[in-house]
């Protein structure tokens, strides 16, 4: 079976106890959208994101009140048993906030800085140096996060001018990509000159166009061995954001590029911020890089399924697995690898069900009202009656107990 390209070699970075890069699996990150100065709201959202599976959470640190809140947020989270590393997102005045708020500098597990707005003209170098010296002082890694929405204008102008007189000029888009990459690499080089180790540096080069993102990361990955954070910036809302992010990140991950990812979805008003975590997990799991939740394969339905029985059962099973997972993770090691199939009729139902650990093929329109169940490729039962869903859920529970619980231990003894 075809698989991903060999993972690009990168220098591992320890972010508050979570390894990013090196031999570590691809890490899922997220970011809050609360006012960090609002301690209650930020603690609540960080906890939600962490419990959804975010392994690192980034928070905005934009002013004194936010910086002052950070150590309290960290403390409250620890009291709640949430030990997720917090990353501070700094723009314009990060050097000042980290200098004036040592408890904030200490509480954060990583600093994210944007070389496009660290400072301007003469102040840029001194403020960048201050930030790196603070990272050294507090022994924290730094993500140098370039974003094409806030690209270093001086650098871009210089490269555009050089390109204009070049014998083989590049397209404007290619020059812009080169500016993004150079901004990241030159900043990383400068950070190393100041004394920051390669194992303390991560890079990201985010753009909002899928093809540009793929091109810029392919180039960046070939030119350095820093750990890379992937994300399609401003991906958008709903299915658009999910598809665009998955297309871009999926291709890069398949090529072995990327050590940590974030899906930058815009939530619907009042929407669930944890969706970005679930999408990141599903992307990694779908591509076979990591396992977070049991997989439910369900057919889309067609004219052979005129009732909603199988849709209801597929959702019922998926919800049951999701809500049971926190407990199952403790009781059934490895249960994340479970695969379940819920299929709508005889056409693909038995075949797909045989590929899953446990699968059910519901009767389509005109078929006899019986639902064969397959376990590890073998037909083991035929369910009938109005409580097929409950019967099948019980069979799933029995299977999990046998395969991942004490049944498995008994068999091993
Ligand atoms: S398995 Fe049956 S119901 Fe489901 S999509 Fe295929 S033909 Fe339609």
Outline the structure in words.
This protein has 14 helices and 17 strands. It has helices spanning 39-52, 64-79, 94-100, 102-107, 122-138, 153-164, 172-194, 210-223, 238-254, 275-286, 309-331, 349-355, 388-404, 406-412, and strands spanning 13-15, 18-20, 27-31, 56-60, 86-90, 110-113, 142-147, 201-206, 227-230, 236-237, 260-261, 265-266, 295-298, 339-343, 358-361, 371-375, 378-383. An eight-stranded parallel barrel has the order 3-4-5-6-7-8-9-11, surrounded by five helices. The protein has a five-stranded mixed β-sheet with strand order 13-14-15-16-17, sandwiched between helices. A hairpin with a 2-residue loop joins strand 16 (371-375) and strand 17 (378-383). The two termini are 33 Å apart. Bound molecules: iron/sulfur cluster. Iron/sulfur cluster binds next to loops.
Structural class determined from secondary elements: alpha/beta
Report on the biggest sheet.
8 strands, parallel, barrel
Kindly provide the radius of gyration, computed on alpha-carbon positions and rounded to a whole number of angstroms. Answer: 25 Å
Mean pLDDT: 92
Could you give the count of β-strands? 17
Q: Which ligands, by name, code or SMILES, are bound?
A: iron/sulfur cluster
How would you describe the shape? elongated
Strands of the biggest beta sheet: in what spatial order? 3-4-5-6-7-8-9-11
Percent strand: 15-25%
- The share of residues in helices is 40-55%
User: Gap between N and C termini, in Å?
Assistant: 33 Å
Count of DSSP helices? 14
Protein name: 4-hydroxy-3-methylbut-2-en-1-yl diphosphate synthase (flavodoxin)
Family: Belongs to the IspG family.
Keywords: 4Fe-4S, Iron, Iron-sulfur, Isoprene biosynthesis, Metal-binding, Oxidoreductase
GO biological process, one term: terpenoid biosynthetic process
């Amino acid at each position: 079976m075809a698989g991903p390209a060999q993972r690009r070699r990168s220098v591992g970075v320890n972010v508050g106890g979570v390894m990013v890069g090196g031999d570590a699996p691809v890490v899922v990150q997220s970011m809050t959208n609360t006012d960090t100065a609002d301690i209650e709201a930020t603690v609540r959202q960080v906890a939600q994101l962490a419990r959804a599976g975010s392994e690192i959470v980034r928070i905005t640190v934009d002013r004194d009140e936010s910086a002052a809140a950070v150590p309290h947020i960290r403390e409250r989270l620890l009291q709640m048993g949430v030990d997720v590393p917090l990353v501070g997102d700094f723009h314009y005045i990060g050097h000042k906030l980290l200098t004036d708020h040592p408890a904030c500098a200490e509480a954060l597990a990583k600093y994210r800085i944007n070389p496009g707005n660290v400072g301007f003209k003469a102040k840029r170098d001194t403020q960048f140096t201050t930030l790196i010296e603070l990272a050294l002082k507090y022994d924290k890694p730094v993500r140098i996060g370039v974003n094409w929405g806030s690209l270093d204008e001086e650098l871009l102008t210089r490269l555009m001018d050089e390109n204009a007189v070049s014998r083989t000029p590049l397209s404007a888009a290619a020059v812009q990509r080169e500016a993004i990459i150079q901004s990241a690499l030159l900043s990383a080089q400068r950070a190393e000159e100041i004394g920051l180790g390669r194992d303390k540096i991560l890079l990201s080069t985010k753009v909002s166009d899928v093809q540009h993102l793929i091109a810029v990361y392919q180039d960046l990955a070939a030119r350095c061995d820093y750990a890379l954070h992937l994300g399609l910036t401003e991906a958008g809302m709903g299915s658009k954001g999910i598809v665009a992010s998955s297309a871009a990140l999926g291709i890069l991950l398949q090529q072995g590029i990327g050590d940590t990812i974030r899906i930058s979805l815009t939530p619907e008003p009042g929407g669930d911020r944890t969706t970005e975590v679930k999408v990141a997990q599903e992307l990694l799991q779908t591509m076979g890089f990591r396992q977070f939740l049991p997989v439910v394969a369900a057919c889309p339905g067609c004219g052979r399924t005129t009732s909603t029985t199988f849709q209801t059962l597929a959702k019922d099973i998926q919800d049951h697995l999701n809500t049971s997972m926190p407990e199952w993770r403790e009781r059934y090691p490895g249960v994340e690898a479970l695969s379940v199939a819920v299929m709508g009729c005889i056409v693909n139902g038995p075949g797909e069900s045989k590929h899953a650990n446990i699968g059910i093929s519901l009767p389509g329109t005109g078929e006899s009202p019986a639902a064969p169940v397959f376990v590890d490729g073998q037909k083991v039962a035929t369910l009938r009656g109005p409580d097929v869903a409950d019967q099948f859920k019980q069979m799933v529970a029995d299977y999990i107990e046998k395969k991942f619980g004490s049944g498995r231990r008994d068999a091993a003894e």
